Every structure is written in structure tokens, then in C-alpha cells.
Amino acid sequence: MPNATNTPAALTDWRSLLGNAQVLDGAQAQQAYGADTTGVRRTLAGALRPTDAEQISEIVRIAARHRQPLYPISTGNNWGYGGALPARDDCVILDLSGLKRILHFDAELGVVTVQPGVTQAMLADFLDQGGHPFLVPVTGAGPHCSLLGNALERGYGITPETDHFGAVSDLEAILADGTRYRSALREAGGEDIARLFRWGIGPYSAGLFTQSNFGIVTQVSIQLARRPDGVCALLFSLKDDSLLETAVERVRTILQRLPGVVGGINLMNQHRVLAMTAPFPADRLDAHGLIPPEVLREMGRDYHVFPWTGFGTLYGSKGLIAAARREIRQALKGIASRLLFLSPSNAKTLAGLASLLPGAFGQRLGKTAATLGRSLELVAGRPNETALPLCYWRHPRGMGEGPLNPARDGCGLRWYAPWCPCARPPSAPMSRWSGALRPSMALSH
């Protein structure tokens, strides 16, 4: 347990190291980091905002000397899983969002080394400016979320590299005594090889730093997926809940037969899709504050949203995608309604046409088509906020302007990510297979 009488002395030492502006006391930290979407409250002892990775070792040594617990965050945008809040009271938050450097990039092989504060948007801008044909490993959490943080929490996405820690080839961390952890290959002078070969030599220890408190990770190397010749979205509907079990079995078959071509398939219920497209019916709730089934059905009809929606992505050459489409049509035959295959350009055209339709029908269809278009940009490796509006569905003041921040804006959200068994074919690489079906646009980091 922390000794509270040592906290002021620790803050004094940290101010000498970082400067007054980079060290917050308890009250300032509470105001800056205390909000969360889950409703959990924590007492914070302070916060540190370093701008140089070389300061981390001494920060940790000061914490050890004063027996003051630290809680490192990357950007703190872990929506629905705790945000920036520590797991216990009286911690000092170590905010690493100021470490924003892209340290290295292999333009031929697509391996990028980033610090904790590098976000999806920053990497997208870097790739665009250099004309590099690689995809950002996006999530539904939005463009202002950390790549490193999501990978260390073993995050999951819907682009070809679905397993985000599976794409990490190397990392560097500061241990509890302030010493630096490097992989054996890097210690032996093989830094270039270490970025490319995740297993290195000797025991594999990098996995100890995921979902743990064994060290503070200050950089990771991530293998990016090359931008394919074609990206195509799969969209289908289920008319009835009774079709869900069969649909899961068919989806499993598709994933088994088309590894590396199908990036993932997300099955979303009517509530989930409507939360991204329709206003919340606050004036039509029942006595328990829930949406009555008949109102939900009516909203589904108005916005053309069925009880279940399947959304997936195909990557590859035109010929490969065409062959995969035939396989998928056969696999979903008899259960899927409105089975569509759309490219990002097709989706933009559809949204534009829908906006031209008159009246409320055109407005509702236009909103649904616009959401679809943004979702397609996301799976094409373009980070955006298309999934974040669901956090605001019941928010009385709406989303406001500027970047969305559910914790700051007082949204309530607890993310539940269930798993169900899904056998992995022996030929499928682990970096492109999740081993299970789970929500693939999770709002994390």
C-alpha cells in the first residue's frame, strides 16, 4: 500500500526532473483524468506528463524511492474499459501521450516503431505524406487513440492484421527499478532483425508486458499490412433472431475457408446499428426506461435496419475478391437478406444518391448510407469516429463539436466483449486469425 506522507516528496522530486508544468497535484489530476464512462471513481495522488522517453527511468526510480504507485497510460482513451483511471486509489498517473515520435519506419517491409502517444490519426498522416502503401491497424475507438496502448491490451481490429499484439515484433520497456528491457536480439546488436522477427532468440518474454504491470513500455514495433489492390465490404442482414445461430456457423465456415482474404466479420444487433444511425427515442420508452419491442421494430423499418446486421471486409486482388464473393454467397445462401458487396467508392455514391431523396425517408436512408460509407473508410485503414456516436445515443446534450471524448462529455459506456469458440485452420497465421468471434471494432485506447 502507498505511504501517503511520501507523495508530496515524490511530487517535489518529479517537479525537479520534469518542471512544474508537467507535474499535477491530486486535485489537478482529478480534474484532468477523473472522468470515466463506467461511473467508477478513483482518488488520484497526482499526474506526470513527460515529453522525453529518457525521463521515464528516473521517474520510476523516484516512485520506487518514495513507494508511490504509478499508473501509466498512453492516451487514456480506453472507452468502456476504464479510460485513464487506475485500478486502485492513490496512484500517480504517468501520462505518456506526450511521447509522440515515430522512431523508425521500414518503407519496404512496412514495420513502424512508435512511442505511446502516436495515435491512429498520426500514423495515417505519416503514411499519407510519404505515399506508403500500408494500412493503419484501426479500431472503432477513433483516430485519437494510441496504437501502442491498444496492442498492449491485446486489442482487436477488422483490417487484415486483426490481432494487434500479434503484429508487434519488438518492444522496449522500463522495469520497476528503472532499468531498461530490450529483447535479446537488440541487446546483441541485431536491432534491424529484432523489428522483423518477433520471436528473437531464447525465451520469448515480450508477452509479459501485455495486460500486466511488469514494466512501462516506451516503444513498440508493429508490422503493418500492405494496402491491397482491392478492398470490398460485405454487408448482409438477418430477418429474424432465430437465424443467428446458423449465421454464426456460416461465418465460422467463411473465416476458415478464406483466411487472409476476409479480415473479419462483425455481427451487430439492431440496437448497435441504430445507436450509430438514429436518434434515441427518449419520449417513447416504457416504464423501465427501455425501448419497447414495437418501437424498436418501427425504427428498424424506418432506417432499414434488420434484427441483425453482418459487416465484414475482403482484401486482395480483383480476381481474388471476385472468387471470395462467390464462396461467401454460397455460404450465406438461405439465411442472409440484402447481401451486398460494396467498395468505398460505391458507398460514397450510395450516400450521395440517398441524400437526394426527398422527405424524411431520404434523410433516414441518407444517414444509414453515410454511416456505411464511414465504416468502409475505417476498414480500408482510414481511422475515423464512425463507431463513437453509439456512446452518445442516450446523452441528452448530444455530441457537440470537435473530437469526440465520451469520458469528458459524461457518456455512460461499459464495453462487453464476449467470445465464442471458433476453430482455427492449421494453415491460418495467428497474426491474421483471432481464434474466436468477437466484436471487431471495439472502442479501446
TrEMBL record:
Keywords: FAD, Flavoprotein, Oxidoreductase. It comes from the Bacteria. InterPro entries: Cytok_DH_C_sf, FAD-bd_PCMH, FAD-bd_PCMH-like_sf, FAD-bd_PCMH_sub1, FAD-bd_PCMH_sub2, Oxid_FAD_bind_N. GO terms for molecular function: 4-cresol dehydrogenase (hydroxylating) activity. The keyword Oxidoreductase applies. It holds the Pfam family FAD_binding_4. The keyword Flavoprotein applies. It is an enzyme of class 1 (oxidoreductase). Its EC number is 1.17.9.1. Residues 37-227 form the FAD-binding PCMH-type domain. Signal peptide: none annotated. This is 4-cresol dehydrogenase [hydroxylating] flavoprotein subunit. It comes from Thiorhodovibrio winogradskyi.
